[in-house]
Backbone:
C-alpha cells in the first residue's frame, strides 16, 4: 500500500544508493521510498488485501547519494561525477554540493572535487543531530546505512565502539511484550523526520 499526499506528487526514479539500488520520489524535494513487510494483510473498506506490505516516504538529503562518487583527486564536471540516472537531480545537487565539495569556475565551466574536511564535518553534523533522539549505536547504525564502506569505516573511527549496545540487546531475553517503551516526544519525532531532509 502506498499513500501519497498532495505534497508528494512528482517523478518516481531509481538511483544507486550506498547500500544498493533504491527508489525515490522527486518532487520539490527528494524523498526515499522504503518498503516494509510487517503486516500480513490490509483491510480497506470492505475488502481484504493479502499483500500486507507498506511503504514509508521520508525526505532525503541528496548529498548521501553524491558522496560516494566524489573524489579528491581532481576537479570534474558534475555530469562526469554522477551517473546518468542522476540527471533529474543535477540542479538540486548543484545547490547543495558545496557543503561537501570545492567548486572551480573555469572557461564558463563549473568543476567540483571532494573536500575531505567539509565532508567529514557534514557527516559528523548528521550524527550529532541523531544523538539526542537515539542511543549512540543506533545513531551510528541509522547514519552508516546511508554511507558506503569507506565512509562507514571513517565514522566508526570517530564515534568509537558501538558493538556493546547490540550485544546487550541480543542477550536480553525478556519478552518484548513485557517492556514498556516511552513514546518519543513531538520534538524528537520532528528531529528524526528531518534527519535526511535538506540541511538548512
Residues:
Amino acid at each position: 500500500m502506498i499513500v501519497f499526499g498532495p505534497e508528494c506528487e512528482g517523478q518516481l526514479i531509481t538511483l544507486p544508493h550506498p547500500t544498493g539500488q533504491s527508489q525515490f520520489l522527486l518532487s520539490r524535494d527528494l524523498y526515499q521510498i522504503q518498503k516494509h513487510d510487517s503486516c500480513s494483510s490490509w483491510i480497506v473498506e470492505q475488502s481484504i488485501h493479502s499483500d500486507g506490505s507498506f511503504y514509508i516516504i521520508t525526505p532525503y538529503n541528496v548529498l548521501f547519494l553524491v558522496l560516494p562518487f566524489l573524489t579528491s583527486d581532481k576537479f570534474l564536471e558534475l555530469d562526469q561525477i554522477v551517473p546518468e540516472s542522476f540527471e533529474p537531480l543535477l540542479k538540486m545537487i548543484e545547490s547543495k554540493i558545496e557543503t561537501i565539495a570545492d567548486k572551480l569556475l573555469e572557461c564558463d565551466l563549473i568543476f567540483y572535487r571532494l573536500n575531505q574536511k567539509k565532508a567529514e564535518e557534514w557527516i559528523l553534523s548528521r550524527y550529532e543531530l541523531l544523538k539526542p533522539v537515539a542511543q549512540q549505536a543506533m545513531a551510528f547504525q541509522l547514519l552508516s546505512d546511508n554511507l558506503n564502506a569507506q565512509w562507514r569505516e571513517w565514522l566508526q573511527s570517530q564515534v568509537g565502539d558501538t558493538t556493546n549496545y547490540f550485544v546487550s540487546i541480543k542477550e536480553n531475553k525478556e519478552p518484548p511484550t513485557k517492556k514498556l517503551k516511552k513514546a518519543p516526544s513531538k520534538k524528537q519525532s520532528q528531529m528524526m523526520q528531518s534527519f535526511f531532509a535538506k540541511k538548512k
Remarks:
- Residues 166-182 have pLDDT under 50 and may be disordered.
